[in-house]
Every structure is written in structure tokens, then in C-alpha cells.
Amino acid sequence: MSILVRIYWAVAVCAISLSSANTLVAAEPTKSVISVSATGSASAKPDIAIVDLAGVHEAKTARDALDMNSEAMGKVLAELKASGIAESDLQTSSFNIQPLYAKRKTSSLSHRDNNKSAGYRVSNQLTVKVRDLARLGTIIDRAVELGVNAGGNVQFTVENPVEVIRLARQRAVASAIAKANTLSEAAGVKLGSLLELKEGTALSPRAPVRVRVMEASSSAVPIASGESVFRVTVQARWSIEP
After folding, report:
1. Which of 37, 50, 54, 236 could form a disulfide with 176 if both were Cys (CB 3.0 to 4.6 A apart)?
2. How far is it, in rounded angstroms, from Cα 154 to Cα 199?
């Protein structure tokens, strides 16, 4: 056999081998899947309330504004502690001293700063965890009497939501399974094994309630706690049996 014939034969064998390999790769089937997303929710009666109570005071000097604010919020803190709220449930969440300015008339040709000092504002916000919800309205009303004149955000929640979250997860997975079965039946295919299951969006308790805190009333502030709702979203994928 000549050298030319041998080279031609080797090239032909390689071409056949590559063609067979390509045929095998192309023939490998792509797995078909069913993917779903589902949300489960569960609710529970709140057992705590997180309340923001703030005092805002203005004066000509920073010292006077600070003294006024400290006196008022000091009384509020003392009253809250005396009412049985633990010190660990009281936290200063923000404190601010801010200069105030008033516009003053200047010549149109003047380029100097036309802001005039008008005093200072001091704000002190206290975040309170109230465990006795029956006393929440009375606590807010008493705080306003002692100097609280701003704030008022109230968020009802469950301190230990492990069980309610577990129930929300179970309902999310059950909903995902039901969706996958419905889709497979509608498509006329058989649902295979579970390939992936993961939790998606974060838990989302209900939005906080806004309470107007401006001046004391003759009776306790009426507040309804309702229910705290927790939601869990999951994504899942199943194979489709041939």
C-alpha cells in the first residue's frame, strides 16, 4: 500500500470517528422539567408591640433645647420603667441636634449668605418593646402627657415566630406540589422526581401601624393589634418522566 493511500485511509477513519461522536452527542436527550413558584402564609396573634416615641424641642440655644428635651424624655423613661417595662426593652434609636435658620432680607447685589440663625432643634427617639398589649394605649397616652410629641410608629409582631414560619413553609411547599401536579396533568405528562427546592423571598410581617402622637387625650389611645402575617415563597423543579 502506497504512502498516499495510507494517508487517505487514516483521514477517512478519523472523519468517520468524529461523525459518530457528534451523532452520539446530538442524540443525547435534553431533560424536560416543570418549574413552579409558590407562596405560603400563616398568621398569629401578636404578643409584642414595637413603639417609637420621640420628643422634639426647639430653643434659641442648643443648651436650652437639649435641657428641655432631656427633662421631658427623662420623665418618659422613668415612667416606662415604673410601669414595669424592662430596661432591656428600652432603646434610644436616634438622637439629633440640628441648627435652625430663617431667611433674612439682603441687597440683591449682595452675595453673602442670607441665612440667619433661628435657634436649635433637639430630637430624641425612644424605641419601646411593649409586652402587655392591653396596656399599650395607656402607655402611649401617658408618654404624651410627659413630653412625647412625635413618633407614633407601632409594629405588632410575634416575638418567637418559629412555629408560624414553619407552617407558612409547609403551606408554600404544598402549594408548589399542587401547582406542579396541575401543570403535569394539563400537559398530559407524568411528574417525576423532585430536582430542586429552595426558599425564595424573605419573610414579610405586616406593615407597621401609624399612630398620631401629638397631644394627650382624656382616655387611652384605642389600638387594635389584629394579626401578624408571615409569608414564605419557594421555587421547585421536577423532572418529567418519559
Report:
1. 236
2. 29
